[in-house]
Amino acid sequence: MSADPAPLRAGRRSFLIQSGQLAAGAALVCLLPASPGRASPQASQELIRSIVGDASLQPGRVNLDVPPLVENGNTVPLTVSVDSPMTEADHVKAIHIVNEKNPQPHVISVTLGRQAGKAQLATRIKLADSQRITAIAEFNDGSFWSGSADVVVTLAACVEDLK
Amino acid sequence: MTARVLIHVAAKAQRGEVIEIKTLIAHPMESGFRVGTNGNPIPRDIITLFTCRYNGDEIFRAEFSSAIAANPFLSFFTTARDSGTLEFHWSGDNGFAATESTDITIE
Fold first, then answer.
1. For residues B51 and B81, what is the distance between their CA atoms, to the nearest angstrom?
2. Which residues of B touch A91 (CB under 8 A)?
3. A123–B73 CB contact, under 8 Å
4. How many Å apart are CA A22 and CA A65, to the nearest integer?
5. What torsion do the CA atoms of B60, B4, B36, A104 make, to the nearest 10 degrees?
6. For chain A, what are the domain ranges?
């Protein structure tokens, strides 16, 4: 009975720790290709600055309708409606949508005609992460108004579907 | 190869009525940020520009980025003025171009 169980226990413990580290390392490697150069909130702020220019961006008048919880980030329905009478004297010229955490901050920019009648736009977008989306409306008087919505994404776009 | 396009607009409308135009086009919208099995990035292949003309006047223009979902869907509005043609045009990477038109009658 000279066999001491202590070295065995220590061996098992270190084995468990090492295998845990290995698994964590493997998980990290799996995650790395999914995040090449993400858009940061700073990048989205810079994009907003380039859209707005020297004008001030005021919150309000823009309603961004996105489901708060999204199961599949590959197709997220999104509706932007802007509170505007759409007359010759007061109408929306353009709508821009900006995100924070996709690889690129820009999503879509649309230009509306004078006779649009209603400043509303619907499309479907991709989201790589849970984040805040901002819609910016440019009015004919040169003012910019914005609306935001927070979205939680459970299955992100761009990560799966590796062919 | 022509892309499959779906357009939904009321065939008849009252003068001055605000009508909704819905368009959908079959396109993979490959973002350019995904990686294939061999580790090589899949090159970007997206539609970048959509325009809609009503009797020759541009009434709507959209510039897409990679963040638009596959098979891009758009819904927008215009005021019905005269009977005529709505012309839709998509263009994008790798020389992609598609054109579709639909007629509208004003009562």
1. 18
2. none
3. yes
4. 43
5. 10
6. 41-155
Of A111, A115, A157, the CB nearest to B78: A115
SS3 state at A12: helix
Show the tokens assigned to B56: 């020759």
Q: What is the pLDDT of residues A105-134, one digit of tens each?
A: 999 999 999 889 999 999 999 999 999 999
| Of the partner residues B36, B65, B78, the one whose CB lies closest to the CB of residue A116 | B78
pTM given for the model: 0.81
Report d(CA B64, CA B49) in Å as an integer.
6
A13 residue type, one letter: R
Indicate the number of domains in chain B: 1
Q: Which two tokens stand for residue B37?
A: 């099995």
Q: A41-155, superfamily in CATH?
A: SoxY domain (2.60.40.2470)
Tens-digit pLDDT profile for residues B36-64: 888 888 999 999 999 999 999 999 999 99
| Inter-residue contact B16 to B3 (CB < 8 Å) | no
In this structure, what token pair is assigned to residue B10?
A: 């009321």
Query: Whole domain around residue B16: which residue ranges?
Result: 5-34+43-106
ipTM, 2 dp: 0.91
Q: What is the dihedral of CA A5, A7, A13, A18, to 10 degrees?
A: -150
Q: Which two tokens stand for residue A108?
A: 């879509």
Phi, psi (deg, nearest 5) at residue B104: -135, 140
> Residue B29 sits in a domain of what CATH number?
2.60.40.10
The pLDDT, as a whole number, for residue A30 is 38
